[in-house]
Design a protein that fits this description.
Number of helices: 4
Helix content: 40-55%
Radius of gyration: 14 Å
Number of strands: 6
Strand order of the largest sheet: 1-4-5
Shape: globular
Order of helices and strands: EHEEEEEHHH
């Protein structure tokens, strides 16, 4: 797909980890870097080793998976929540996810994503605090 590189199917590029996620019970590890070029020509890269939960309740199959990985990553680095959600929608559209499914997933992250986003910001803040020697 135009804009994506090296991750033809995420089921090949994602491994289960033994870590347990409190929301869905399973986390996934990206085993190859994933890159995406937005419509605004911004190049985003998720590094190999990134651990995510893939849209919380869904299994890693289908054309939404790359979008879910990127969305989790953007939350984890503190990207503006609306921008992260919009990139999630853009990637699903470019990935061929059906319009009704895209709208449902987008609505879900807009309504329920605040909790995950705030948790990611808290973790990022704690990590930055630890890196300052505190």
């Amino acid at each position: 797909m135009k804009g994506l590189s090296r991750c033809l199917t995420m089921t090949q590029a994602v491994d289960r980890t033994s870590d347990r996620d409190r929301w869905c019970g399973t986390t996934w590890k990206l085993v190859h870097d994933m890159q995406y070029k937005t419509k605004a020509n911004e190049v985003l890269q998720v590094p190999a080793g990134f651990i995510c939960n893939l849209a919380t309740w869904l299994q890693p199959s289908g054309s939404y998976v790359e979008a879910a990985v990127m969305h989790d990553y953007l939350y984890s680095i503190g990207r503006n929540r609306k921008e992260a959600d919009d990139i999630f929608m853009e990637m699903m559209q470019r990935g061929g996810v059906k319009k009704a499914v895209r709208k449902l997933f987008y609505l879900a992250v807009r309504i329920f994503g605040r909790r995950a986003y705030n948790r990611a910001l808290k973790a990022l803040s704690a990590k930055e605090g630890n890196s300052d020697g505190q």
